[in-house]
């Protein structure tokens, strides 16, 4: 009995041990199975993200990149590696894949790591709010990617470009991308957020609200920082393609940073064919308006010229109502193109049918000088250069930095001495005056087929039209 009992007890013990062993094995198997399923799911997601990013980026890089490259001025003679990288991007059709932080396909952090404080702005492609990182209390700007109907539910090209370029940039005059975070439902594009360093102002809001224009020394500080940021971008084969005052941020320490890289892209040397539908109308260079598909950093320098004028008067310089009106305003300020002032102008797609005054252009300097009577001769010289009709004649950002305008008195004001302004972004949603945005992808360029500019400087025509003047389409 005792032995039986012992044996039965022994059996029970053995059974229990066996049962425990089996349970453990089962649990381990279950764990391994779940682990495998999770890994497979992650791999599948990664493959899908790779394919989507590759497709979107191929689309982004495509941007009309067909045909043989034209000869052009080099943006910068240096940076062999960047050049090779850009060239390989253009030539091999092998898009670089985006990595949203956390290693190869590591999960980006959740947006829950940030508490929203207030909305700042709803822009063309995104939505920006001020937020605080829960762990550190640091204030940041959260920019949500907006769906572009053109992307048909895929990843938005503008957002991908912005992420890729900002991830690569590291310069004190370019806004810093801290990380990319996601909301719970990662299948929704609008649940992807860029976490950017927060700056209290954008220049447009300041210009709209300030009672007095910037001092000459302050304009110089801002322009020098802008040129420095643009020089960095161009050195790294990046065209911004949407420089304007609302895309220039300023912090309370007088530091300016270039933001909004939704239109930006890498270019090689020579550049590929690119869409001319870039840059907000009021800041768009004449070669773009005339349909060029080969352009370089000079289009950004034209925008810098427009920004220069705006900093002086607090009003956008060339507020055209449409492409024809924009060209008209450009010709009125800068003169009409001639063989001498812009030799390659007639070869531009939209220039062939244009009728221009036979007398040719006026001296651009005199109009600009009259419009900016307080600007020094060096300042007029720089502004004239930036607003040269012929892109070849505009200074590069590096050349601009060396311009005597910045060396002459009054010297650029020290950033630390820059005045401070009440921050709208810090407290309230902005209500802005209506200003145009950069063109949407897929938008049609205006057909300037045959526009008659012959009456542009005729006094009689001006009087008849009450001082203004409009174009005749023929
Ligand atoms: P969109 O691409 O939608 O036009 P932007 O990047 O131009 O968006 O941002 C829109 C506005 O949001 C800017 O004009 C600026 O006022 C504000 N903003 C953008 N980034 C920041 C930032 N890092 N800090 C503070 N405000 C910002």
UniProtKB/TrEMBL annotation:
Disordered: annotated span: 25-95, 408-447
Keyword Kinase included in the entry's annotation: yes
UniProt GO MF annotations: ATP binding; cyclin-dependent protein serine/threonine kinase activity
Annotated EC: 2.7.11.22
Entry annotated with the keyword Nucleotide-binding: yes
Pfam family, one: Pkinase
Catalysed transformations (reactions): L-seryl-[protein] + ATP = O-phospho-L-seryl-[protein] + ADP + H(+); L-threonyl-[protein] + ATP = O-phospho-L-threonyl-[protein] + ADP + H(+)
Feature: compositional bias, Basic and acidic residues: 25-48
InterPro entries per the UniProt record, alphabetical: CDK, CDK11/PITSLRE_STKc, Kinase-like_dom_sf, Prot_kinase_dom, Ser/Thr_kinase_AS
One cellular component (GO) term of this entry: nucleus
Keywords from the UniProt entry: ATP-binding, Kinase, Nucleotide-binding, Serine/threonine-protein kinase, Transferase
GO biological process terms held by the UniProt record: regulation of mitotic cell cycle
Low complexity compositional bias, start-end: 49-61
Domain Protein kinase: residue ranges: 114-406
Family statement: Belongs to the protein kinase superfamily. CMGC Ser/Thr protein kinase family. CDC2/CDKX subfamily.
Name assigned to this protein: cyclin-dependent kinase
Origin species: Corynascus novoguineensis
């Amino acid at each position: 009995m005792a032995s039986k009992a012992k044996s039965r007890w022994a059996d029970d013990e053995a059974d229990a041990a066996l049962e425990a062993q089996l349970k453990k094995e089962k649990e381990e198997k279950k764990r391994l199975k779940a682990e495998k399923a999770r890994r497979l799911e992650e791999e599948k997601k990664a493959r899908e993200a790779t394919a989507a990013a590759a497709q979107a980026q191929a689309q982004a890089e495509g941007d009309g990149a067909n045909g043989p490259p034209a000869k052009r001025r080099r943006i910068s003679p240096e940076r062999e590696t960047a050049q090779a990288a850009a060239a390989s991007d253009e030539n091999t059709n092998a898009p670089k894949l985006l990595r949203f932080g956390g290693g190869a396909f590591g999960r980006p952090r959740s947006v829950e790591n940030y508490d929203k404080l207030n909305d700042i702005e709803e822009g063309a492609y995104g939505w920006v709010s001020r937020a605080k990182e829960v762990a550190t209390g640091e204030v940041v700007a959260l920019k949500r990617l907006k769906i572009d109907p053109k992307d048909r539910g895929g990843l938005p090209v503008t957002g991908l470009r912005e992420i890729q370029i900002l991830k690569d940039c590291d310069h004190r005059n370019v806004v810093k991308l801290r990380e990319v975070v996601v909301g719970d439902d990662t299948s929704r594009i609008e649940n992807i957020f860029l976490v950017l360093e927060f700056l209290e102002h954008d220049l447009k809001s300041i210009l709209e609200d300030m009672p007095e224009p910037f001092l000459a020394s302050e304009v110089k500080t801002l322009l020098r920082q802008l040129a420095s940021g643009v020089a960095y971008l161009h050195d790294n084969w990046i065209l911004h393609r949407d420089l304007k005052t609302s895309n220039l941020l300023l912090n309370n320490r007088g530091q300016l940073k270039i933001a909004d890289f939704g239109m930006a892209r890498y270019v090689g040397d020579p550049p590929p064919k690119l869409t001319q539908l870039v840059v907000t109308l009021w800041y768009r260079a004449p070669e773009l308006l005339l349909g060029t598909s080969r352009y370089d950093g000079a289009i950004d320098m034209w925008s810098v010229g427009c920004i220069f004028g705006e900093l002086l008067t607090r009003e956008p310089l060339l507020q055209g109502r449409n492409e024809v009106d924009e060209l008209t305003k450009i010709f009125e300020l800068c003169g009409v193109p001639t063989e001498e002032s812009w030799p390659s102008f007639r070869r531009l797609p939209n220039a062939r049918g244009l009728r221009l005054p036979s007398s040719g252009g006026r001296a651009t300097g005199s109009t600009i000088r009259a419009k900016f009577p307080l600007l020094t001769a060096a300042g007029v010289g720089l502004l004239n250069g930036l607003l040269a009709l012929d892109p070849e004649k505009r200074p590069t950002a590096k050349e601009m930095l060396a311009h005597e305008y910045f060396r002459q008195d009054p010297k650029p004001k020290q950033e630390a001495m820059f005045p401070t302004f009440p921050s709208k972004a810090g407290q309230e949603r902005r209500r802005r005056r209506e200003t145009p945005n950069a063109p949407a992808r897929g938008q049609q360029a205006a057909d300037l087929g045959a526009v008659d500019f012959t009456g542009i400087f005729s006094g009689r025509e001006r009087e008849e039209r009450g001082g203004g003047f409009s174009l005749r389409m023929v």
